[in-house]
Amino acid sequence: MGTTAGRYRVMRLSRRFEETMHDQFGDGQVPGPLHLSIGQEAVAVGGCAGLRTSDAVISTHRGHHHCLAKGARPDRMMAELLGRTAGYSGGRGGSMHISIPDIGLIGTNGIVGAGLPIATGCAYGFQAQARDDVAVCFFGEGATGTGAFYEAINIAALWKLPLVFVCENNQIVELTPQEVHVAGELWRRGESHGMPGVRVDGNDVDAVADAVGAAVVRARAGDGPTLVEAVTYRWFGHYAGDRAAWRVEEEVQQWRERDPLIRTRAALPAEQADAIDEGIEELIGSALAFAQQSPVAGPEAIFPNHYASAS
Ligand SMILES: Cc1ncc(C[n+]2csc(CCOP(=O)(O)OP(=O)(O)O)c2C)c(N)n1
User: Fold this and answer.
1) In 3D, which of 41, 25, 23, 42 has the Cα closest to residue 33?
2) Ligand 1 close to Cβ of residue 143 (< 6 A)
3) Which of 58, 128, 145, 194 is deepest in the core (most CB within 10 A)?
4) What is the per-residue pLDDT for 174?
5) What is the residue with the minimal CA distance to atom 25 of ligand 1?
C-alpha cells in the first residue's frame, strides 16, 4: 500500500464492503450488531501502510477497515458478519470477534479500551523475543477515558515498547460529542510519560501513512512508543440502525465533502480509478456470493467451542 492506487483500492474496498453489509443488515441478514467506519477509511489504510504481515494490529468494535487494511479476505469477513461457517470465527463471533493471527490481525473487540492492554502485551512479547516487529493499536477517543489507556501508555513508555498508539478521533463517543467529555489535546496525553505525540488529518491517507510510518520506524528501532491522533469523522450513527437523530446535518454534510476517498481518487488518472472501482465491484460481488453460499452457523457449533470433551 505504498502507492496512491494501492491506498485508494483498499479504501474503496472497505467502503463498498461496509455499504454492502449495511444493505444486508437492512435485509435482516446480519445476526449481530454492525458498527460502520465509513468516512474513517484513511486512518486504517494509512495506519497499516508501513506494516509487514508479522506486525500486529489491534482493532476495536468499529474495525472492518482495520481488518481489510491488514489484509483480511473480504469473503471470509462477509461470511463472519452473515453468521456463516466460512467466516473467520466460524460465523459465531460476528464483527467484533474477528482474529486472524496469520496476518497479524490480533483482533476486533467489543470492549472499549480493551485493545490497549492487549497491544501492550503484544509489543512486550515482540521485545522479549527480540523480534523487530511492531504493534499498532487503534482506539477511539472514547477509549482515552478508560484507565486502561493510562496503564498502557505508562508501561509502553517505561519499557520503550515497540508500539504505536493510533487514536482514531471520529469526534463522537457513541452519542456524545467529544467536546462534552474530552479536556485538552488528545495527542499530548503521552507527554507526561515522555512519549511523543502528533495530530494528523485523519482523512488524508498519505498524512496518516507518514505519521504512523515514522512512529513505526521509531518503534522498530527500539526507541519506544508514539501517540498519533488522527482526526476524522463518522458519517453514520453509532451502529447500523441508529437513526442518529441528534446529529447536525450541516456538520455531516461538511465532512462528507471531505470524503477521504474523493481526495485520494482525485490524485489518480480517471481511467485507473475507474478500473479500480470496477475491480472492487467484482470482488465485492464474488465475496457476497461466497458468504451467502456458506452454511449458516447453527446451534450445534456452540458447545464444542466452549467446553472440552470429558473423554
Ligand atoms: C467498557 C465498555 N464500556 C462501554 C461500552 C459501550 N460502548 C460501545 S462503543 C462506545 C463508544 C466508544 O467510543 P470511541 O472509543 O470513541 O469509539 P467510536 O464508537 O467513536 O468508534 C461505548 C461507550 C463498551 N462497549 N465497553
Assistant:
1) 25
2) yes
3) 58
4) 87
5) 111
Instruction: Kindly tell me if the per-residue pLDDT of 311 is higher than 70.
Output: no
Structural domain contains residue 305: no
The answer, yes or no, to whether any atom of ligand 1 lies below 6 A from the CB of 63, is no
Domains contained in the chain, number: 1
Q: Residue 144: CB within 6 Å of ligand 1?
A: no
310 lies in some domain: no
Instruction: Name the packing angle between helices 205-220 and 41-48 (round to 10°).
Output: 40
State if residue 110 touches ligand 1 by the CB under 6 angstroms criterion: yes
Which of 109, 112, 138, 167 gets mutated to test ligand 1 (max ligand atoms within 8 A of its CB)? 112
What is the identity of the amino acid at 302?
Answer: I
Rounded to whole angstroms, how far apart are CA atoms 5 and 137? 25
Q: State residue 294's pLDDT score.
A: 98
Tell me, what DSSP letter sits at residue 14? H
pLDDT in tens, 27-67: 999 999 999 999 999 999 999 999 999 999 999 999 999 99
Residue 112 Cβ contacting ligand 1 at under 6 Å: yes
Per-residue pLDDT at 282 = 98
Q: pLDDT at position 269, please?
A: 98
Query: If 0-12 CB within 10 Å is exposed, 13-18 middle and 19+ buried, where does residue 69 land?
Result: buried
For the chain, report the end-to-end CA distance as a whole number of angstroms. Answer: 49
CATH of the domain at 30: 3.40.50.970
Long-range contacts of 253-258 (CB under 8 A, 24+ apart): 255/39, 256/39, 258/203, 258/233
Q: Which domain holds residue 254?
A: 4-287
Summarize pLDDT for 264-280 with one digit per residue, the tens. 999 999 999 999 999 99
